[in-house]
Amino acid sequence: MKGKLGLLASLVLVCNYFPVATAQGSPNSKNAVVVDGTNFELHGDHVSYRFHVDDSTDDDHPLAGDLLLDHFGGSVFGPIPTELVPSTNGWVGMQGRVRREFPDQGRGDFRIPAIRIRQSEGYTVTRLQYQSNTVVPGKPALPGLPATFGSEEDVTTLVVHLYDKYSDIAVDLSYSVFPKYDAIVRSVNVTNKGDGDITVESLASLSVDLPYQDLDMISLRGDWAREARRERKRVDYGVQSFGSVTGYSSALHNPFLALVDPSTTESQGEAWGFSLVYSGSFEVNVEKGSQGLTRATLGFNPKHLSWKLGPGETLTSPECVSVYSKDGVGGMSRSLHRLYRKHLMKSKFATEDRPVMLNSWEALYFDYDQSTINRVAEEAAAIGAQLFTLDDGWFGVDYPRTDDDAGLGDWVPNPARFPDGLGPLVENITDLKAVNSSTNLRFGIWVEPEMVNPNSSLYREHPDWVLHAGSYPRTETRNQLVLNLALPEVQDFIIDFMSEILNSADITYVKYDNNRGMHEISSPSNAHAYMLGIYRVLDTLTAKFPNVLFEGCASGGARFDPGILSNFPQIWTSDNTDAVDRIFIQLGTSLAYPASAMGAQISSVPNHQTGRSVPVTFRGHVAMMGGMFGLSLDPAAIPEHEQAALPELIALAEKVRPLILKGDMWRLNLPEESNWPAILFISEDGSQAVLFYFQLNPNVNHALPWVKLQGLDSQAMYSVDGNQTYSGATLMNVGLQYEFDGSYGSKVVWFEKQ
Ligand SMILES: *[C@@H]1O[C@H](CO)[C@@H](O)[C@H](O)[C@H]1NC(C)=O
Ligand SMILES: *[C@@H]1O[C@H](CO)[C@@H](O)[C@H](O)[C@H]1NC(C)=O
Ligand SMILES: *[C@@H]1O[C@H](CO)[C@@H](O)[C@H](O)[C@H]1NC(C)=O
Ligand SMILES: *[C@@H]1O[C@H](CO)[C@@H](O)[C@H](O)[C@H]1NC(C)=O
Ligand SMILES: *[C@@H]1O[C@H](CO)[C@@H](O)[C@H](O)[C@H]1NC(C)=O
């Protein structure tokens, strides 16, 4: 061991950062991006992100040309104190003791790198040094990938150009600031400027080094029928990692991470939220290094990358959204919700009214013919549905889809079920008057375009179109295989058959399903090539059919991610429709995603997934906290007392809908912590609010809790359900009380600002 052990005996300044205080540096200024020489400032309304280029003039200094992070947190302006770093004793050199913006590997930083490139010679060392920067008004699109967007008023972009002169590799870091949302969006591209091939083995869209402090991490984990369970734990020394190698984002973990102060709650304290705009395999790492600094990286999963770049070729990473809030986990979520509604979801339906739907799946499963469908649609119209969706089972000629072991891939109506095709059926259904609605019943359809059953004409003709690895068996899940969307001919096949279906009849809604993960793939890079393919398909279809409302679905919520939201304004949150479980799932999902994006419906009891029976009002109240209210059941089987409750529930769902679609969501009580989960939605202009209040278990012979509201104007008066009037201060500091009968009580309360 060389050097001395007295670590604190000497301190070295590494951040030679004494910026000139300029008027531009004020957080209240209009400048979202300030560049002062090689100092960079990004400002949102309540966030600042500052980094600089290490100015060592000696190029042999390991940090020369490195980007160092100075601050990511609440707004700051003017000079900030220089970071003091203990002198380097031991194995960890200066690189391992500082906060690096884009850590490479192989030169002394022993933490998780943001990039790892295998050079043609075999080694994996890179040295990326600052070259120049460009400031771009607005935000350029990401080639082939979903991305947030905005006008020059909404967003400004800083591009920092880095270069490895030893291997001729150019890396551009792109930072886009949406000041109103306190959001900073980063993506990275890597270009091979040399003569040989290189392989990108890992690439993080975002890497961020936070200072020495205790932090908790919050993530969403789950599986089929129990998606988006919130998990919070202390960030410990070492690497804490999660992700997906299913080929899709998956229900196992969501591509979302929050880092919070250990004292942060729903409504108070610092919270950093990170959300990866990608639908494929991903990896999140949180590492507390030996020096106590915390590094977080989000990006591609290295197990599904190994991306080869020939001379002149570029790999672009997905983008990662970061938001910062001082108002706790709730404030973080609201920033993401607002950003996603206005600057990610391209569909016009993102904030537009959506019809009340009745879906045939839990009503009929595979067991129906044309007359059953007509019957259910008529009954749907009579109970107030405005859209009827024909789910799985309508297609297949030589391999009719009458069960889940045949037909996927053969997207032609089953002639035994629909002898005249879909056209006349859809005409019949769209001729029906939706009761108490100004419109006729609309028609929607279910598809699962990325899949194929071996029992299909498609597979007989194109066995090579499925994902496979040489002669290894093609393992089936739910009797199906995955088409290889990396192949342009497969992309075109899907675009063509979908266009044909949507042009063949007046279809205004599509439930786009995807029911298994990827197994054998031809190479790790096939996974990302597939993603580029699926995004081409979704971009093309949604651009061609802007008036069709697409809902994503993947065994429930297994592809509930920002990449899908960019094209589909709505995603089926879970196949578990049990209303009590749904409170957990929907509130978990709301950590990153707006309520408007969640598909939620009333289903019959006992619930098909859990066997639990919950009153129809409770089921209705939970379902109306989603983007499109609806029913997934057989209308003929609805008990009379439930039928009697439906008109009022539908009317209420329509009344609260604008607040769900466009308002702010406040999670007042979490189901993990309280027997009385409570959620408040406040309209964009603050003039209206609606409280959803639930009791899970009976509360016998015991005092009643008060539910305290949040986010109101404390000085204003609000009428409560049209009778009493209280000040915002009273509603937030005293609260309201409600009494429920037994288990599964629910209450929806309406507030109008006076
Ligand atoms: C890399 O990204 C930057 C910033 O978006 C962009 O200006 C540049 O054109 C990209 N380079 C390539 C080769 O795509
Ligand atoms: C194909 O379908 C038949 C019935 O139509 C079923 O018995 C068989 O198991 C299916 N084969 C596969 C591989 O799913
Ligand atoms: C349309 O509805 C009529 C009347 O209910 C029925 O006789 C006919 O079979 C239906 N046609 C189709 C294609 O569903
Ligand atoms: C239709 O509206 C009438 C009048 O408001 C109401 O009595 C009836 O219950 C409603 N029916 C349905 C199915 O919504
Ligand atoms: C307040 O109004 C609601 C409906 O508007 C009604 O159901 C409730 O009984 C009223 N409460 C009181 C205390 O008047």
CATH architecture of the largest domain: Distorted Sandwich
Instruction: Kindly provide the name of the CATH class of the largest domain.
Output: Mainly Beta
Averaged pLDDT: 94
User: What is the percentage of strand-forming residues?
Assistant: 25-35%
Number of domains: 3
The low-pLDDT segments are 1-29
Q: Major sheet: size, sense and barrel closure?
A: 10 strands, antiparallel
At the fold tier of CATH, the topology name of the largest domain is Beta-galactosidase, Chain A, domain 5
Bound molecules: 2-acetamido-2-deoxy-beta-D-glucopyranose
CATH homolog superfamily of the largest domain: alpha-galactosidase from lactobacil brevis
Shape: globular
CA radius of gyration: 27 Å
Total E-strand runs = 39
Number of helices: 12
Catalytic activity: Hydrolysis of terminal, non-reducing alpha-D-galactose residues in alpha-D-galactosides, including galactose oligosaccharides, galactomannans and galactolipids
Family: Belongs to the glycosyl hydrolase 36 family.
Subunit structure: Homotetramer.
Domain Glycosyl hydrolase family 36 C-terminal: 676-751
Q: In words, what does this structure look like?
A:
This is Alpha-galactosidase. Homotetramer. Keywords: Glycoprotein, Glycosidase, Hydrolase, Magnesium, NAD, Signal. Its cofactor is Mg(2+); NAD(+). InterPro entries: Aldolase_TIM, Alpga-gal_N_sf, Alpha-glycosidase_related, GH, Glyco_hydro_36, Glyco_hydro_36_C, Glyco_hydro_36_N, Glyco_hydro_b. The protein is α+β, with helices and mostly antiparallel strands. The chain folds into 3 domains: 333 residues, alpha-galactosidase from lactobacil brevis (Beta-galactosidase, Chain A, domain 5), CATH 2.70.98.60; 261 residues, Aldolase class I (TIM Barrel, Alpha-Beta Barrel); 65 residues, Golgi alpha-mannosidase II (Immunoglobulin-like). It is 18% helix and 28% strand. The strands form 7 sheets. Strands 8, 9, 10, 11, 13, 14, 16, 17, 21 and 22 form a 10-stranded antiparallel beta sheet that branches. It has a 9-stranded parallel beta sheet with strand order 31-30-29-28-25-24-23-33-32. Strand 18 and strand 19 form a beta hairpin. Helix 9 runs parallel beside helix 10 and helix 10 runs parallel beside helix 11. The longest helix has 23 residues. It is globular, with a radius of gyration of 27 Å. The N terminus is likely disordered.
